[in-house]
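Before the break, one more example. Copy the sequence into your notebook; we will annotate it together after we see the structure.
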Amino acid sequence: MCGIAGLALKPGARIAPETLAALARALAHRGPDGAGTHVSERAALVHTRLAIVDLATGDQPLFGAGAALIGNGEIYNNRELRAALPLVPFRTGSDCEPPLHLARAEADFVPLLRGMYALAIDDSERGVVTLARDPFGIKPLYRCAADQGTAFASEPQALLAAGLATRRIDTARLVELLQLQFTAGTATVFTGIERVPPGALLTLRDGAEAALLDHPPIEPGEAPRDEDAALVALDAVLAQSVELHQRSDVPYGMFLSGGIDSAAILALMARLNETPVLAFTAGFDRATVADERDDAEATARAVGARHERIEITETMTWRHLPAIVAAMDDPAADYAIIPTWFLARHARGSVKVVLSGEGGDEMFAGYGRYRAAARPWPFARPMRARGAFDGLDLLRDRGEGWRAGLLRARQAASGSGLARAQREDVATWLPDDLLLKLDRCLMAHGVEGRTPFLDREVARFAFALPDRLRARRGLGKYLLRKWLEANLPAARPFARKQGFDVPVAAWIAGQGQRLGELVARAPVIAEVADPARVRDLFARAADRRAGVACWRLLFLALWHHRHGLGGAVDGDVFEILGERA
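Here is what the structure looks like once it is written out:
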């Protein structure tokens, strides 16, 4: 995991050293182990390194075959790619060196890579700059038009810090953020800054787009239709993925919840490792939400894992929330950023890599909303049919425009009703919320996050399963539960789960009037909502629906302070919001 940035230059364009230095400074948290640059007549490349593989010779940019490459992420089939290229004179042990040579030999090299990545390649022989992003969108990449050509970076804030983009904010996207919790599609909240789409292979010539190839995250595959045979095949595909995701030259651990997905990862890590797995679990100081630490500890104990528990308190949250929100420069108002950020801060004292269960629900149909959406007409219930602020009479824009990104993904989805619902989430919720959250919260502390469920072979298998092996008896992830029942019964895969929650509503309710006044006075809130109604909403934050809406307004106020106004975050919530009193 690293940070990348740079420009594909127009003919004759020059880039100031100060601009490259500003990009490097802005991305230093993603790569505290080193930095490098490369400048040619076509491109200027900046790399900040988090050293995970090939600690001795893996500094970037990498050079070879008339090209230079910078990358963020991990190519898990590095060993296999090297074996398939016996005539290539590799200079390093870096997992990113095979893509450098593949890009010169193959017009479309993305299907050959198995991993999470954002790559930039300056190809002198072809006279082009190539950007590539993994098909699930695990690793971020953004671009914008600049005076010198096309600029790109791992985070929008780097483009802003270097003066390559402006802080103009699209208010319609803020409304989408409030209603949906994230923004779907390529457009960001910053006018002019776009996400490079997941799976994109983008060719830039003379500083402008010349070609764009798309690679879907889910490709056609095969899976047994018989349950027993499917369980054997599931074991093989998951074990292979976890083995690949454990390839590292530095210590690694995992995030363990009380749920199915992380328990499955733990079971396989315990099988594949000779030493005890190190697992981290977060809990809260409020009895109003389920505490997963005891369940996680019992699961960890069953496989002999080392288990570390952390408690997140209200005081901790108010103190660090401005910094947590600041990490989300591309905003996702998912309250799970709170435990993810604290877990990463704790884990960095022991490891540089953590495996997590993100993607298990999307691959194996875990959410109840999938089953509801797959019901036959007229009983089907479309996903996210209602925004968080519908009926609250609070937003200035009460239109339906915030649904546009979801509807585009919904119309493009294919397969059974269950598969279409899953594909909609894979195209939106997964890259634009869950993976964005994981990337920013971990990279804020220089920790790499890996997601074994989001592997091309796992996806091929999972989406080839018949619906009856995905969802049965009113439960999702049926086959995964059956596998876990045999491999780690202590995880109680068929027990009724309360679900993961964060007590933000209870915390906000305890500060309702004080916090409501501060949030209502934030300039961005007046742009999108009626401040008087915001105060009223915070007064009834103990109600769950009102509490969720209050959390998103609080998130927006803090986010705008940092990324809209460029304010500092060296204070607690009340100090930061109080600066504008």
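The longest strand covers residues 67-75. The chain has three domains: 3-214, 227-386+398-491, 504-577. Try to locate both features in your own notes.
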